[in-house]
Every structure is written in structure tokens, then in C-alpha cells.
Amino acid sequence: MQDSNIATNGGPGNVDEKRLRNLAEVWGKLPEHERAKAMKELTQGLPSQYRQVIEKYFRDLAKKSGGE
Q1: What are the DSSP calls for 2-54, one per residue?
Q2: SS3 for 59?
Q3: Is 43 exposed, middle or buried (0-12, 13-18, 19+ CB in 10 A)?
Q4: pTM assigned to the model
Q5: Please, is 27 exposed, middle or buried when counting C-beta atoms within 10 Å of its C-beta (0-12, 13-18, 19+)?
Q6: Alpha-carbon distance 39 to 59, whole Å?
Q7: What is the largest CA-CA distance in the chain?
Q8: Please, is 62 exposed, middle or buried when counting C-beta atoms within 10 Å of its C-beta (0-12, 13-18, 19+)?
Q9: Is the separation of the CB atoms in 24 and 62 below 8 Å?
């Protein structure tokens, strides 16, 4: 299974969990330009497959909270 492989990318892996949690709570209420800015910040330096997963997660959050 591919997910069982050791990661070889060089990113630091630092995540501001408090900021991520706060964004998740208000994501659907943010104006589109704020969402785009936050998404750029959250996915900066990530491999494309992770960026796609994170973007889908936040799109789903927005739909659930009525933001889209």
C-alpha cells in the first residue's frame, strides 16, 4: 500500500493546529478572497496530492456550513 511508505519530501511538516481548527470552524463564513488567501497559506510548499486533499476538505466544509 502506497500510504505505508516512508515520506521522502523535505517539508518541515509544521502545522499550526489552533489556526487550522479555527479556519475549519469559520471556513464557510469567510469571504471568497479570505478563503483563497488561507488556502494558499495552508498548502504552500505541499506536494500537489496533499494540496488537492486539503482543498477538497475545505470545499466540503464550506458546503456543510452553507458558504458555497
Answers
A1: GGGSPP---------HHHHHHHHHHGGGS-HHHHHHHHHHHHTT--HHHHHHH
A2: helix
A3: middle
A4: 0.53
A5: buried
A6: 10
A7: 39
A8: middle
A9: no
Among 53, 30, 28, which residue's Cα sits nearest to residue 42? 53
7-61 confidence digits (pLDDT tens): 566 566 666 788 878 888 888 888 889 888 888 888 887 787 888 888 888 888 8
Specify whether the CB–CB gap between 51 and 43 falls below 8 A.
Answer: yes
The tally of CA atoms less than 13 A away on the side-chain side of residue 2 is 1
